[in-house]
Design a protein that fits this description.
iron, Rossmann fold, four-stranded parallel beta sheet, globular, single chain, 2 domains, binds ligand L6N33NVT, binds fe (ii) ion, metal ion binding, 355 residues, cytoplasm, EC 4.98.1.1, metal-binding
Length: 355
């Protein structure tokens, strides 16, 4: 009896080799994602950006039948002017873009440098935005064209929120839905309690305290707010923010009186997570006699309108008007070495088995 296995019949290709589309494969994409930013601070680019952002039901979950008339008819007629003026005050005029765009590009370059040193050319690093440019879909398509058959998607928000991490992931999966050959995909988990992120935050606090003219009486950790209802409906953002502050405090070896958690950027009439930073810094100066404070914004991986304008201008003003004397703003971790080392390590963990 012939024990040799029969060779399976060869199915002919539907096309002659010359007609076959070129198939690129074998690379791994690392796609960093941030929120997005307007292309310019003038009315129409501001309106386009705010419209896309504020129409996202992960951000504002009201029924579109009620919300859209209000958004299109009232909010988008005035807010683009007000927010545009705020963007103008922090704009990177030399590069013709907002600070968030400039910093995200620098972070991408630093990430690429670190991953190239570890994994060589097999890993392709790029960034995209949830709203505005460069869009998530354009970058997913570009990665596939570059031969990435696996993509690790990294929303650059340390704490999970439906309004940030989840909507970034939604947009990534929407982009994958359009592809005939869908790459394998991983999304990176929030890193609010990762010791490498906490260490980078702690080092930035230590450096700022060493340089401060007067030692701050208290460190205010100001996180971007969300409606309180989102917490009650199961969004863990509030708890992850509290835990980041606690871990930072423990790493710094401080007692509870030296640090506190607050929430900024309230929008609309609903109650948001409290205490509100703008009120709390005034209360600290007026009622608690804390005349020297430092403010850090651990929910932002890059400086942006919410830190450079809201914290370092509006919130600072509120503190000073209430009698505060020294206000130290501690910049976001941006493309600093400790931060980029931490983020590159987190990516490397998530590349396990793929490189
Ligand atoms: C209206 C609801 C909003 C929710 C909820 C919200 C959550 C949220 N946002 C960030 C991070 C960023 N937000 C930024 C700007 C920004 N945020 C809102 C509104 C909500 N954010 C608006 C309307 C704007 C635009 C500016 C303005 O008009 O006030 C930015 C900065 C972008 C930039 O270009 O610099 C970031 C970053 C987080 C982390 C978060 C919830 C956890
Ligand atoms: Fe926001
Ligand atoms: Fe909580």
């Amino acid at each position: 009896m012939n024990m040799m296995k029969a060779t399976p019949p060869v199915t002919p290709l539907p096309h002659a080799p010359g007609d076959h589309p070129q198939v690129r494969m074998g690379k791994v994409g690392v796609l960093l994602a941030n929120l997005g930013t307007p292309d310019d601070y003038t009315y129409w680019p501001m309106r386009r950006y705010l419209n896309e952002f504020l129409s996202d039901r992960r951000v504002i979950d009201y029924s579109p039948f009620l919300w859209q008339p209000l958004l299109q008819g009232i909010i988008l007629t005035s807010r683009p002017f007000r927010s545009g003026a705020a963007y103008k005050s922090i704009w990177n005029h030399e590069a013709g873009e907002s600070p968030l765009a400039t910093i995200t590009k620098a972070q991408t370059a630093q990430m690429a440098k670190r991953l190239r040193a570890r994994f060589g050319d097999r890993v392709v690093v790029d960034y995209c935005m949830r709203y505005g440019n460069p869009s998530t879909i354009s970058k997913v398509e570009a990665m596939q064209a570059a031969g990435c058959d696996r993509i690790v998607f990294f929303p650059l928000y340390p704490q999970y929120a439906g309004a940030t991490s989840a909507t970034a992931n939604d947009q990534f999966f929407r982009a994958l839905m359009k592809l005939k050959w869908q790459p394998s995909a991983r999304t990176i988990a929030p890193y609010f309690d990762d010791p490498r992120y906490i260490e980078a935050l702690a080092q930035s606090v230590e450096e700022a305290y060493a340089k401060a003219e007067v030692e701050p009486d208290i460190l205010v950790c100001s996180y971007h707010g969300v409606p309180k209802r989102y917490l009650m409906e199961g969004d863990p953002y509030h708890c992850q923010c509290q835990k980041t502050t606690r871990l930072l405090r423990e790493r710094l070896g401080w007692d509870k009186s030296r640090i506190k958690t607050t929430f900024q950027s309230k929008f609309g009439p609903e109650e948001w997570l409290k205490p509100y930073t703008v009120e709390e810094v005034a209360r600290l100066a007026e009622e608690d006699g804390k005349k020297n404070i430092a403010v850090i914004a651990p929910a932002f991986s890059a400086d942006c309108i919410e830190t450079l304008e809201e914290i370092n201008e509006e919130i600072k003003e509120s503190f000073e008007e209430a009698g505060g004397e020294h206000f130290t703003y501690i910049p976001c971790l941006n493309d600093g070495d400790a931060h980029m080392d931490a983020l590159a390590d987190i990516v490397a963990d998530n590349l396990s088995g793929w490189t």
